[in-house]
């Protein structure tokens, strides 16, 4: 399957990197004493291409969609929870709504393929907004064949590109909602990275041991039913969800625009995995917020050879982990811009 997707340039500027490292090393502190905050400051300076990085108009975007696979009992919750949670996001009652409000993150919800028709919502300053980019009211059951057609997958990718093009600022925080989408993440990890389903598949929204066993059996059927879908976009169409495909397009566009991409948990990481198989330089622009408590996420992060900022046992999704990690990005930029050097402060350096 082909799609018109953004291409990326390498942002690995050795001269800028050396200048940033010199600045960090000569702040008024013992060398390396701010630990991984120093690595984060370096990454943010590299992404934004400056020694004085500023995070402007951060955008939290939650991509929502339903999954035909959910009818097979792969989640502890019914599919109706997807649209109900979209309403909860917009009403301000969800975890990501609270955290976005707390940290001043603009919140947008995108209907990528929810099995309910939403009325258009007028944008209200300071309130969450809803974008209607529905490809269809949920995907097909991937255990019986492809979840999406190639055309549907390409449409979802294009929607992701379009959504990001319309957003202000230089930071994109990724969120998602879709009952059954931990199954999608597990399938994509298994297919694209060869990780066994036992390692990929966990409790999702709270399955018991019998439920996890049933989920694994359904996922094996999905892999077998789509055995020929091995290239990244083919696997995405066969196994993915509309919200995951829209996320892939959004990630690629944000990376092309050199935005900071703050990756949440298992499902958003699956979208980044697909995007990085299409454009490996995507990973240069990403900050991984946390290591989820969902089984499979640690393996997924290992496949991409990335280290997250937090490990709090989270497995909610929605973008909640990305929002919780946000203050660390703000602090890293402030340290780089505002912390004095030994020379400017008149403090003696180590002999």
Can you give the mean pLDDT?
Answer: 95
Uncertain residue segments: none
Structural class, from secondary structure content?
A: alpha/beta
- By DSSP (H or I, 4+ residues per run), the number of helices equals 14
User: Termini distance?
Assistant: 61 Å
**What is the count of β-strands?**
6
Pathway: Nucleoside biosynthesis; alpha-ribazole biosynthesis; alpha-ribazole from 5,6-dimethylbenzimidazole: step 1/2
Function: Catalyzes the synthesis of alpha-ribazole-5'-phosphate from nicotinate mononucleotide (NAMN) and 5,6-dimethylbenzimidazole (DMB).
Active site: 318 (proton acceptor)
GO biological process, one term: cobalamin biosynthetic process
What are the salient characteristics of this protein?
5,6-Dimethylbenzimidazole Phosphoribosyltransferase, Chain: A, domain 1; alpha/beta; single chain; 351 residues; Rossmann fold
Verbal overview:
Pathway: Nucleoside biosynthesis; alpha-ribazole biosynthesis; alpha-ribazole from 5,6-dimethylbenzimidazole: step 1/2. Belongs to the CobT family. Catalyzes the synthesis of alpha-ribazole-5'-phosphate from nicotinate mononucleotide (NAMN) and 5,6-dimethylbenzimidazole (DMB). With 351 residues, the protein is α/β, with parallel strands linked by helices. The protein folds into two domains: 14-53 and 335-345, Orthogonal Bundle (5,6-Dimethylbenzimidazole Phosphoribosyltransferase, Chain: A, domain 1); 59-329, Nicotinate-nucleotide-dimethylbenzimidazole phosphoribosyltransferase (CobT), large domain (Rossmann fold). The protein is 46% helix and 9% strand. It is built from 14 helices and six strands. Strands 3-2-1-4-5-6 form a six-stranded parallel beta sheet, with helices on both faces. α6 (181-193) packs across α8, α6 (181-193) runs parallel beside α11 and α11 packs parallel to α12.
């Amino acid at each position: 399957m082909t799609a018109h997707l953004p291409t990326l340039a390498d942002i690995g500027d050795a001269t800028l990197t050396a200048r940033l490292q010199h600045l960090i090393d000569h702040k008024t502190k013992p060398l390396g004493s701010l630990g991984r905050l120093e690595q984060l400051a370096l990454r943010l300076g590299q992404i934004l291409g400056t020694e004085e990085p500023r995070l402007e108009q951060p955008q939290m975007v939650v991509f929502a969609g339903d999954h035909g696979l959910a009818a097979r009992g792969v989640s502890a919750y019914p599919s109706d929870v997807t649209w109900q949670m979209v309403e909860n996001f917009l009403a301000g009652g969800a975890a990501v709504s609270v955290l976005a409000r707390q940290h001043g993150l603009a919140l947008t919800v995108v209907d990528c393929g929810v099995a309910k028709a939403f009325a258009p919502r007028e944008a209200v300053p300071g309130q969450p907004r809803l974008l209607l980019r529905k490809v269809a009211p949920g995907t097909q059951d991937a255990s019986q064949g492809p979840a999406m057609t190639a055309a549907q997958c390409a449409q979802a990718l294009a929607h992701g590109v379009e959504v990001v093009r319309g957003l202000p600022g230089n930071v994109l925080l990724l969120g998602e909602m879709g009952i059954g989408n931990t199954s999608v993440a597990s399938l994509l990890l298994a297919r694209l990275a060869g990780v066994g389903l036992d390692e990929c598949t966990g409790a999702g929204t709270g399955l018991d041991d019998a439920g996890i066993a049933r989920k694994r059996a359904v996922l094996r059927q999905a892999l077998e039913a789509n055995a020929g879908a091995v290239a990244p976009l083919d696997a995405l169409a066969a196994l993915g969800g509309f919200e995951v495909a829209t996320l892939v397009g959004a990630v690629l566009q944000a990376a092309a625009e050199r935005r900071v991409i703050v990756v949440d948990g298992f499902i958003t990481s699956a979208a980044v995995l697909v995007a990085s198989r299409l454009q490996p330089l995507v990973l240069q622009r990403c900050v991984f917020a946390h290591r989820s408590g969902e089984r499979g996420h640690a393996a997924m992060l290992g496949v991409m050879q990335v280290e997250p900022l937090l490990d709090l046992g989270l497995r909610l999704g929605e973008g909640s982990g990305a929002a919780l990690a946000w203050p660390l990005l703000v602090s890293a930029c402030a340290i780089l811009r505002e912390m004095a050097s030994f020379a400017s402060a008149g403090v003696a350096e180590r002999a």
